[in-house]
Structure formats: structure tokens, C-alpha cells
Amino acid sequence: xxxxxxxxxxxxxxxxxxSFQRKRMVAFGVPGLILVYFVYLFFAFDVLGLAERAxxxxxxxxxxxxxxxxxxxxxxNRGPVTWDVAIEGExxxxxxxxxxxxxxxxxxxxxxxxxxxxxxxxQWDGPLVxxxxxxxxxxxxxPKRSGIELSLPGVxxxxxxASRTRVAITTPHGRVSVTKSKTEVFIYHFxxxxxxxxxxxxFHGKGPLELLGLALGGExxxxxxxxxxxxxxxxxxxRMWRHNEVAWAIFxxxxxxxxxxxxxxxVALPLAFLAARNFTPLKGLMFGLRRxxxxxxxxxxxxxxxxxxxxxxxxxxxxxxxxxLTDTGTFGKMFSEALENVDRRQIEGVHSTxxxxxQRYRFGVIPQIxxxxxxxxxxxxxxxxxxxxxxxxxxxxxxxLLLIQAINTQKDWEEVSYYIVLIVLMVMFMDTLSGWLRRxxxxxxx
Length: 446
What we know:
Blueprint (H helix, E strand, L loop, with lengths): L1 H43 L5 H4 L2 H12 E9 L6 E5 L17 E4 L2 E5 L5 E5 L2 E6 L3 E8 L2 E5 L8 E3 L3 E6 L2 E6 L2 E9 L17 H10 L9 H10 L6 H33 L7 H16 L2 H12 L3 H25 L3 H8 L5 H39 L2 H11 L4 H30 L4
Antiparallel strand pairs: 1-2, 1-12, 3-4, 4-5, 5-6, 6-7, 7-8, 9-10, 10-11, 11-12
């Protein structure tokens, strides 16, 4: 009896040791495999080479462009000498003849001088341009047909990029670009210039107190309308920032998300009854619908966008249809699973009153799945507002189109920042709205 007991205890101990050993191997083996995988990624993606590939100066320029504006001063180096002074280099922001130029820019006959007051000076003497950089010296660049002659006071620093056809000088005070065709100077200033009023507006350059005085009772700037109406008109029709077009683009984005989300819910709800095991008598139909749901949600919304844009052409409606197709598959799966978990007793209770099938569904099923239905619907409405931004960049509608256009120019980064801020505010608004609706409709606040 004692020998049998010892044998049994020994077997149990051996089995326990093996179990602990397996758990120990899993406990150390899984983290070890993950560590090996990350080591592989480290070398596969050449993380060490990031420092060599990184262009920090370009990144600094991009960040500076996002929260400031720059004024371009350009001189032609070919043909007749012409000068262009424009904010962000755009014709809509150009200083026309008779307008007051920035105080740091002065013209001396056919030449000009830029002096920021910080020791950074650009002086034109015909095609020859002299750039005085604090703590470095005077740089001379002379564009010729054969190329650009560059004269430096010392060793070429890394903030000067020079070749035979182009010289680019980037300093904290400003940037200079010299090519055979033209010489440009970019002077940075904090803020988004012309955001409220363009140069041709009579309200441009006026301070907040002065504008407030005009709005409250000052002399009319435009006889045909009040000052408040004139300010609103000039702001709304700002040719530089296009506030009216941006507002319409935001509206298009929300409409795309709204139509796609609610359209998908309307289509998916009746199909979900046919795809639920406890509501459809035809198993083949149930299986087919579930595979259709898998197909619709298995193809990403961006792919549906490309396919539909090819079929129906670009536009906000195409983006809404792409969201509708993707969400129909998602809602169909979620709603059918919710239907399979309903309480049959409530349905039987409604049936006992003599209710017809549609009435049993209406009063015995819908109230049970409505919290899930509304919760998921409102969440996807909020999520699709973000998705509609990306979809709009492909289909040619909404704020996404304006964003991708601004990015493609590679110069209007302050507009990119503006659109990103609007997108974040739009998502915050939709999140707040959906939360409020969820509390009101589902009773979450109670």
C-alpha cells in the first residue's frame, strides 16, 4: 500500500514538474520570440540608417511654414527686370502698385534691399545679390548663363546648398534661393497673414480695437453696406484662405459620413434578420448573406472608393457609397449577432397578445437590440467622419480634397495646419454630438 502511494505521488510530482517546465518555457520563450522579432525589424527597416536619411532642416522648414507665413521677394534674372512681392508667393497675396510695402523692404531704383533688423541683409546690385548673415559674413551670388558664381567668406556651412544651377541659403532669419532665372528671398513672420482680410480689403492691417470701433458705429467704409456686413463679406469671400469653400468642404465631409453610415444601417438591419439563425428558415440564405457581409467589410473602404470612383466618377456621393458598402458588411454582422442573442421570452410575451409577425419583431425584438444598434451607429458615425476625410481626398470632395491639394503644392503648409485643425474640431464636434445623442436615446446619463 505504501509503495503504491509513493508511486502515485512520484507520478504526480513528475507531471507537476513537467507542467511547470512547460509554463516556464512559455513564460520565457514567448518574450524571447518577440525580442527576436523586434531585432529582425530593427535591421530589416534599417533603423540605424534613419539618421543618415533624415533631413532635419527640411522638417524644421516645414514646421516653420505651418505656424507662420513668409513674404516672397523675387527678382527676374532673365529678360526685363521685374519684381514680385507677394505673401506666400501667390498672386492673390501680391502687393499691387500703390500698396504699402513691408517696412523691411526698400527699393533703390532697379535694385532692392531687405533688412530684417537682426543683421540679416539682402542687397541687390543688378543681378548680383549680397547676403549678410550674422556670425558668418557676406555671401555673394551672381547668376550667369553658364551657372551661378558663388563667393563665400569662409568654409561652406551645411545650411548652404550650392550647385552650378542653384544656390539655397537657409537661416533662422530668412531664406534665399538663387537660380539662373530668378532670385527669391523668403522672410518669415509669425502667424497666418491674410487669414481675416486680404490686401485689397479696406479692413486689412487694422487692429482689433479699430475693427471693433468700425463695427460699433464708425463711418461706413463701403456706402452700400454696413461695416459689419462688409467685414463678414470680406472674410467669407477671402480669396487667399477661401473660408466659404472650406465651410462647404466640411459640410460635404459630414454629409458623406452621415449618408454612408445611416444608409448602411438602413440596408443592414433587414438583411440582419435574414442572416440570424433564429429568424431565418432558409439556412442557405443565411450562409450566403453572411458571406456577402464578409465580402463587403473584407474590402477596405479606400479600395471601394477607388472602384466606385472608376465606375461613377469622383464626387462626394461616391465617397458616401464607399462608406455605405463597407459599413453594411460590418453592421450586418453585428446586428445579426445581436439578434441571435435576444430574449425569446419577450417575443413570446408579445405573441401571446395576438400580435402578428411584424408586430412581434417591432415590439419584441427591436427594443432589445436598439441600444446596441444606436451605440454602434453613433460610434461609426463619429469614426466615418475621420474616414470621409481620407476618402474625400481620393473621390474629390470634402475637406480631404483641400488638404491633399495643399500638401501637393509643397508650400502651403500653413493651410495644411488650418485644415488639420478644422478636421480635429470637426471630429471633436461629432464626438460630442454622438455622446449627447447616446445619452439621450439610450439613457446612458441615468
